[in-house]
Design goal:
The complex is a heterodimer.
Chain A (H helix, E strand, L loop, with lengths): L2 H38 L2 H5 L2 E2 L4 E2 L2 H32 L4 H15 L2 H15 L6 H25 L3 H9 L4 H29 L28 H11 L7 H34 L1
Antiparallel strand pairs in A: 1-2
Chain B lengths: L1 H34 L8 H6 L3 E2 L6 E2 L2 H32 L2 H16 L2 H20 L7 H25 L3 H9 L4 H12 L1 H17 L2 H6 L17 H8 L8 H31 L1
Antiparallel strand pairs in B: 1-2
Helix pairs in contact in B: 1-12, 3-6, 3-9, 4-6, 5-6, 6-9, 7-8, 9-12, 11-12
């Protein structure tokens, strides 16, 4: 082995090591959560209310709360995000406005989540008088998710070949007709998948809901969109740092962490299945 | 009739497109509206460079220098760890890993991004914090170092996936040319691929750092939350984001404390704006 080959040998092993450090961390984290969380999880844990100052019982209201908030998030972020992506990719010419829109999207995606939380407090809770509730939290998360859904939808639209658009335009279809019949059907699987992945990320966020509606301990299900709620990420935060007997509720905290991760991965999985089916249907 | 329908749809789409500009403006405006009031009490210079943060003492001392330094310290630590490992990881995936498992590896890294930050904070509290405490024989493991390590891994998916894209988009002819001239694969990567992808790699680093500065929950859970001037990386610190998250719940609406927290929000907004604009410049230089 000469000097050059030795250099390559060492270099490659160094890179391999970088990769395995990351992989090992991921493995350790997953193993820790799954092995300890699985002990806490049973039917009672996911189907009952927390009892006795959260030292016993389950996390049902937190699961329901997180799902309800995510639905609100979707209602705001999905249509708006898809519309914006259609505008940028199909309608906008390379003008100043388009550049401004792109810059705004990039900035929205860079704004720290806690700053969205502050914004949610002023706009939804105070200015619009919604109070601290599911609706305020969902809308705040929706704004945060918006740049992700736009970016994902735009990628999907970009992957539709231009000949599809030209073909339909050449046959006399209007702009919107050709988008509706020749672009969207091919882009929708990718748009939906990307969007749902964004929603999964939103479901796990804590900072934006801290002051916009998440509650410490509410042992009943939310009555309407205008009530406060428990959420899995916030519940986990409380169980691990704010609870009066942290070591006693540690197993429950592990259970909550596993339920949260399972929920996030379930949403991801759903997105992948959906894409698969939509693609298959298109093939037929 | 059809014309009218189409006109309406196109205008709706235009509104969606303009919404993002509207929201950025709205966020900044509302932050300014609430945050600027703090400058009736302290001057901007005293706010940014004041060394003590005692928002509820009387009179309140609202200097955020300890918080800024806390954020900087954690971010610097995270950058030192995550940049070499992240870029190394990206090179491994882009150049060395067998083509068959490439997609699986990328998905694995992206899995790390799917774990909610509060879960990572929780695991960090239980595993990393005692580890750091025992390693350095400290009174507490809730230190800037623990935060840096945790955040380095949170920045990893961003850095790896953008850096991998940058390496992938280097024209194949560069690589083939170098190999044809007798360079080894390693020399090609080191002397040709990395310089050619440099602006994309810089963008990856910037966006990774952006992620680190904005991170709230994990950092609040494992850095100890002590709003004092940091001396070393082995002490508890508090970041800008954690300060808002920890204190907003107790701040009385309309009090000077409340305004000060919004002013911290403005500082964070401006930092993230600057980082994103810079990253954008790097990405566009490439094209």
């Amino acid at each position: 082995m000469n000097k050059k080959e030795f250099g390559q040998f060492m270099g490659f092993n160094l890179l391999r090591m970088c990769f395995f450090i990351v992989l090992l961390t991921l493995a350790v984290i997953s193993f820790d959560i799954i092995s300890k969380g699985i002990k806490a999880i049973n039917w009672e844990f996911i189907s009952t209310m927390p009892r006795n100052g959260m030292t016993e019982g389950g996390v049902l209201p937190a699961i329901i709360g997180t799902i309800m908030v995510t639905v609100i998030t979707a209602i705001l972020a999905v249509p708006l995000g898809m519309g914006c992506a259609i505008y940028i990719n199909e309608y906008a010419n390379n003008s100043k406005i388009t550049r401004l829109i792109r810059m705004s999207i990039r900035n929205l995606s860079g704004v720290p989540s806690i700053v969205y939380g502050l914004f949610g407090v002023v706009l939804f809770v105070q200015f619009m008088h919604l109070g601290t509730c599911i609706l305020s939290s969902g809308l705040t998360l929706g704004l945060m998710t918006l740049p992700w859904t736009i970016t994902a939808s735009e990628e999907a639209l970009k992957s539709v070949p231009n000949s599809y658009r030209y073909g339909s335009l050449a046959l006399g279809a209007s702009k919107w007709q050709s988008i509706r019949t020749n672009v969207l059907p091919y882009a929708i699987p990718g748009m939906l998948t990307g969007t749902i992945l964004g929603l999964a990320r939103a479901a796990g966020e804590t900072a934006p809901i801290l002051f916009t509606g998440a509650a410490f301990y509410l042992p009943f299900l939310p009555k309407s969109l205008f009530s406060q709620f428990m959420a899995l990420p916030y519940h986990l935060y409380i169980m691990s740092t704010q609870h009066h007997s942290i070591s006693k509720v540690r197993p429950l905290a592990y259970g909550t962490a596993l339920v949260l991760i399972a929920l996030v991965f379930l949403i991801n999985f759903f997105a992948i299945i959906l894409r698969y089916h939509l693609r298959k249907r298109r093939m037929e | 009739m059809r014309k009218v329908k189409e006109f309406i749809i196109e205008k709706l789409i235009l509104i969606c497109g303009l919404a993002s500009i509207f929201f950025v403006g709205l966020i900044f405006l509302f932050l300014l509206k609430e945050g600027l009031s703090v400058f009736n009490i302290v001057t901007p210079l005293d706010f940014l460079f004041g060394k003590s943060w005692y928002p509820i003492s009387d009179p309140a001392q609202l200097g955020i220098l300890p918080l800024i330094l806390g954020s900087l310290l954690v971010t610097l630590g995270a950058a030192v760890i995550s940049i070499p490992i992240g870029i190394g990881c990206a090179i491994y995936i882009a150049e060395i890993a067998p083509a068959r498992i490439k997609e699986v590896l990328k998905a694995g890294i992206e899995l790390l991004a799917a774990i909610p930050s509060v879960v990572l904070g929780f695991i960090g509290m239980i595993t990393l914090v005692p580890f750091v405490k025992n390693c350095f024989h400290l009174p507490t493991g809730l230190t800037a170092l623990s935060g840096s390590i945790m955040l380095a891994f949170m920045a990893m998916p961003t850095i790896v996936s953008i850096a991998e894209d940058a390496l992938y988009s280097v024209p194949k002819t560069y690589k083939e040319g170098a190999l044809a001239l007798g360079a080894t694969h390693w020399q090609t990567i080191w002397r040709v691929m990395l310089p050619a992808a440099s602006s994309g790699l810089l963008a990856a680093i910037m966006l990774g750092i952006g992620r680190v500065i904005g991170e709230t929950m994990a950092v609040m859970m494992i850095t100890g939350n002590a709003a004092v001037m940091p001396n070393t990386i082995l002490e508890p610190i508090r970041t800008l984001t954690a300060t808002i998250a920890a204190e907003m719940g107790e701040a009385v609406v309309g009090s000077e404390h409340y305004f000060a927290l919004f002013a911290i929000g403005i500082v964070l907004f401006i930092i993230s704006f600057a980082i994103n604009v810079t990253a954008d410049l790097f990405l566009h230089r490439k094209q």
